[in-house]
Design brief:
The protein is of the alpha/beta class and about 210 residues long. It is about 35% helix and about 15% strand. Helix 2 packs across helix 3 and helix 4 crosses helix 5.
Amino acid sequence: MEVSVVDINGKETGRTIALSKDVFGVEPNEHAVYLDVKQYLAHQRQGTHKAKERAEIAGSTRKIKKQKGTGTARAGSIKNPLFRGGGRVFGPRVRSYDQKVNKNVKRLARKSAFSLKAKANNITVVEDFTFDAPKTKSFEAALAALGLSGKKSLWVLGAPNQNVYLSGRNLTKTEVLTNDEVNTYKIMNAQHLVIDESALAAIEANLSK
């Protein structure tokens, strides 16, 4: 699949680049995408939630009233979950939400995500660029030039660039990552991918193994 390479101002450079069929032209595996996205979202959970259950409440263990003759239900402990200040029934406990997904499945999921974006013509390849200074206006101008204003876009760079990152940080629908930070969730969550040439080469080298 051939795509045109444009500059940061949206102008044609006169060059084209071939997207690797092994990365951008595979048959998408939706289940692999589902597993990888589910793992990513699960890993965002800290799992530090905790509520005290009956055995963990501080209080006396004496029987608070006689068993019969009170006209009310029997009760044996002030820590009863039915009472105010009592323990919680089946409350949340500290746990890990980590899920295991095999390396090959994760690789297939990323390939599938890239292929879905390529099939929908939602990938733009730009020549390597930088900004002279971190300015949000510079990034907004680039978005407008590429026709991405108001769209959720993911910009993938071949190497960390502080000026580009800081310029896009305040834009709620824009995210800037390097090629080694890209994952299936980020790809699928974006409406459009903007990949610079060095990042494209690194992605293809990594996923073609």
